[in-house]
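Folding Problem: From Residues to Backbone Shape
Fields: amino acid sequence; protein backbone structure tokens
RECORD BEGINS BELOW THIS LINE
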Amino acid sequence: ALGVRRLLVLTNPDPTNWVIAHLSNVDKIALANSPYPSVPTLLADARLKAVDALAREVAGDLSSIRSASAYAEVEMHVRQHQADRMRDVVATAAQVLRDRLDVQNGLASLPSGTDIGHDISQQLDNLVFTNFISATPDPWYSRMPRWVQAMSLRLDAWRTNPGRDATQQALIDEVEADYADLCDRQPPGPLTPEVEEIGFLVEELRLSLFAQQLRTAVPVSAKRIRTAIAKVS
């Protein structure tokens, strides 16, 4: 599947310059403040994600592409739509990075050694890292701006009611411990989509606890997540 994706990147025109030309100045500034080593590296990763998503719309499992005719069908779809899709992917990344900066500024204003500061810093690092664009599958990638925005909202709420935040944090800690145990029991290598999905449900649970006004994408609760963990186990 990764080989097919790479071949699609190599055999189709590169829309990166077009995408850059259609970015706002605000987005361009945001892209310069990322964990990627450079903006071109970020854009290349965004193109990978766009190509991968478009190819899967046609073929599903890319490893099933075993003939020239099957490849040609996927290649045509990618060629026709990759510029617009890459622009959307980059716009989402820019929003995530703008919100990330707001969170980092909020964390900097906290007293040192606070539990909320440690938790949010860890959550942010787990979500936004080098290659986070291609590493975050759809449809969860489009949810990332809300997850990061929720961190800022949580910081605001903590300042007025730290006790409530501590109670909610205790619930998150329990669920994340259960999920960590599940991940530890998996064989070496990438997590299966079923196990990975539960990790994103934990992010939605955080949203429901700390920023209800942003609304979750799916019904979620600690009980539902534990049921999903038990099913995968």
User: Anything to note?
Assistant: The mean pLDDT is 96. The radius of gyration is 19 Å. DSSP finds eleven helices and no strands in the chain.
